[in-house]
Amino acid sequence: MIPDEMLDSGLGDADDDDFDSAVGIADAELPDHRYLDRELSWLSFNQRVLELGEDPRVPALERANFLAIFGSNLDEFFMVRVAGLKRRIITGLALPSNVGRAAQDVLADISRDAHALQLRHAEAWQSLVKPALADAGIEVIGWGDLDETDRETLHDYFQAQVFPVLMPLAVDPAHPFPYISGLSLNLAIRVRNAKTGRQEFARLKVPPMLPRFVRVSRDGDHARYLPLEDLISNHLGDLFPGMEILDHHAFRLTRNEDVVIEEDETENLIQALEAELLRRRFGPPIRLEITVDMDDLTLDLLLKELDITEQEVYRLPGPLDLRGLFDLSRIDRPDLHFPPHVPTTAVAFQPGDNNERPDIFAAIRKGDVLVHHPYESFATSVQAFLEQAAKDPHVLAIKQTLYRTSGDSPIVQALIDAAEAGKQVLALVEVKARFDEANNIVWARKLEKAGVHVVYGLVGLKTHCKLALVIRQEGGVLRSYSHVGTGNYNPKTSRIYEDLGLFTVDPDVGRDLTRLFNELSGYAIEKKFKRLLVAPLHLRKGLIRLIDRERRNAESGKLAGIRIKVNSMVDEQIIDALYRASQAGVPIQIWVRGICSIRPGVPGMSENITVRSILGRYLEHSRIFAFRNDGDPQAYIGSADMMHRNLDRRVEALVRIAAPEQVAELNDLFALAMSDETSSWWLGEDGVWTRHSTNADGAPLTDIQDKTMAMVQRRRRSRAVR
């Protein structure tokens, strides 16, 4: 018997037995060690970020920004991934059987690669980016580079703005070793009592609320900056009067900050999460960064008091915590940034001939609208859609998922306005969105106070899908306006995240979303979806059926092809299905931003698989699944990456794109991304990524993000001419 949801999704005549047989093909047909290590693959991704910071063709302040992104990414990797591996060792929990290695071995490999990358990161700043900024008039200098006038000026600044907020903490029999907060920058200071001759230790935290780089002087485009820790370390005498300063060194600690909640054992998710967030601050240490000149006496004290091993120590030159370069990267020097891209309004939502404000609902009624952010404006599409819905007297209800946004977001305000106008408003808030938990709790309560029905999803699952549903009364009947996206409802990140979103008035999608929201907010267990594939119950199965259909087409001599764009490709069942399709001769193109466990180009297994990665000014974030389907192309977009957490422990949704011209648009985008003339990184079967950014003559290859923006601008101009 064919399950209804598979028939309705247009997935052909495969049933569960077909699925089991497709997944259950003997592993003997596929070699062992066919997956690349996910943790090392992630480090390779961050290396690609670092390579952008090293690239002299990238504007200098953008290079500083990429170095800051690298540091921030690596912090999160340690706080979550490395912490998770250490937790497995402590609890005796083995890694999944498909990994084939012990957690200790994985940690050793991570330590090796991470040490090399952090040294390369520090060298990129010292030898490449810092000199490039200096050549452009932005100098980061040391205390020894200052003249007496500069030092007097900075002394006054220190006394007025820095000294009052500093809190030196002594370590002696009366003062135990202080708590060191995660990711804080600190000075370890040794002093001698001038009267007793006794040596003491003190810890001083560099205040995170102050500018990391203090401006020393500015003359037109020429400016000089001094690291805040350098300023503080040269005024330690003011903090320890009567003491002799013997030595001082910077250090930085990373803690386990992953949150683990047993939802089935708690009666109140919000209270449990708030308690866990308090515990997060006191997670065990997992990395200690120190400067290269730290003496053994100080290091031994830190190792003992922090209970950390030598393997977890990262000895680095130059300033620690290069996330501070985010501040420098915001300097207003247009010549040192990427040329500006101005998002355009999607053609369907552009004002009419008299420049009147567009009717978003009327535009959607004319046909499905596919928008591409940030090339097309989030404000004039998604935001305008919800703001119009909040004000429209014919709108009766709004339902929306919220994963990451902000309390001052116009999206949140639109929901509040709608509730205050008497509409039914449901907001499904994912309070477990990592590192946004506290913020999400705050604005979830703000929504509740405004009368919005706030729910927190299903026990044991994160709600990661990006869905909005507006119910409008028209001519005595109710009509559903739907939005399914690949990115969060966040106006700030929409300007730097590349994402796709579909607006449709198709009643099938409206019913799908209604059923899904009912499942998320109530007790319904719904399995019938027509244009959606939904995790955790059906998304993996649906995709494997689609992949297997391409395999069967290839074996029958029909047109076949698979194109997948994701942030991460890790799931073994999906990867094995792609391997089997490759063995049948299906050409497969994988466009991945981050982790990829596929080994492409292996004879007899994956020689028909090509894997590329693209990084640039925008974070590639959309997910696309396209199938040639014997000449009747199909494509899906949505929120799901090919990872266990997305397919098994999250509510995810993909929507099938129905308009042929929009399917063609997605395939055109793919063709551009996979072209040898486009700048990208290529993955080899050995797991090594190779950058291809210039042609044989040394000329730069096409930047897909620049070209996409130009194409979108041309579409707008062509409509204006008509």
UniProtKB/TrEMBL annotation:
Catalysed reaction equations from the record: [phosphate](n) + ATP = [phosphate](n+1) + ADP
Keyword Protease included in the entry's annotation: no
Annotated Gene Ontology cellular component terms: polyphosphate kinase complex
UniProt keyword annotations, A-Z: ATP-binding, Kinase, Magnesium, Metal-binding, Nucleotide-binding, Phosphoprotein, Transferase
Post-translational modification: An intermediate of this reaction is the autophosphorylated ppk in which a phosphate is covalently linked to a histidine residue through a N-P bond.
InterPro entries, per the entry: PLipase_D/transphosphatidylase, PP_kinase, PP_kinase_C_1, PP_kinase_middle, PP_kinase_middle_dom_sf, PPK_C_dom2, PPK_N_dom, PPK_N_dom_sf
Residues given in the record as ATP binding sites: 73, 497, 593, 621
Coiled coil, from the record: none
Gene3D superfamilies, per the entry: Endonuclease Chain A, Polyphosphate kinase middle domain, Polyphosphate kinase N-terminal domain
Signal peptide: none
EC number: 2.7.4.1
Catalytic residues identified in the record: 464 (phosphohistidine intermediate)
Residue ranges of every copy of the PLD phosphodiesterase domain listed in the record: 616-646
Cofactor: Mg(2+)
GO molecular function: ATP binding; metal ion binding; polyphosphate kinase activity
Pfam families: PP_kinase (PF02503), PP_kinase_C (PF13090), PP_kinase_C_1 (PF17941), PP_kinase_N (PF13089)
Binding site for Mg(2+): 404, 434
GO terms, biological process: polyphosphate biosynthetic process
CDD domains: PLDc_PaPPK1_C1_like (cd09165), PLDc_PaPPK1_C2_like (cd09168)
Similarity section: Belongs to the polyphosphate kinase 1 (PPK1) family.
Function as written in the Swiss-Prot or TrEMBL entry: Catalyzes the reversible transfer of the terminal phosphate of ATP to form a long-chain polyphosphate (polyP).
Protein name: Polyphosphate kinase
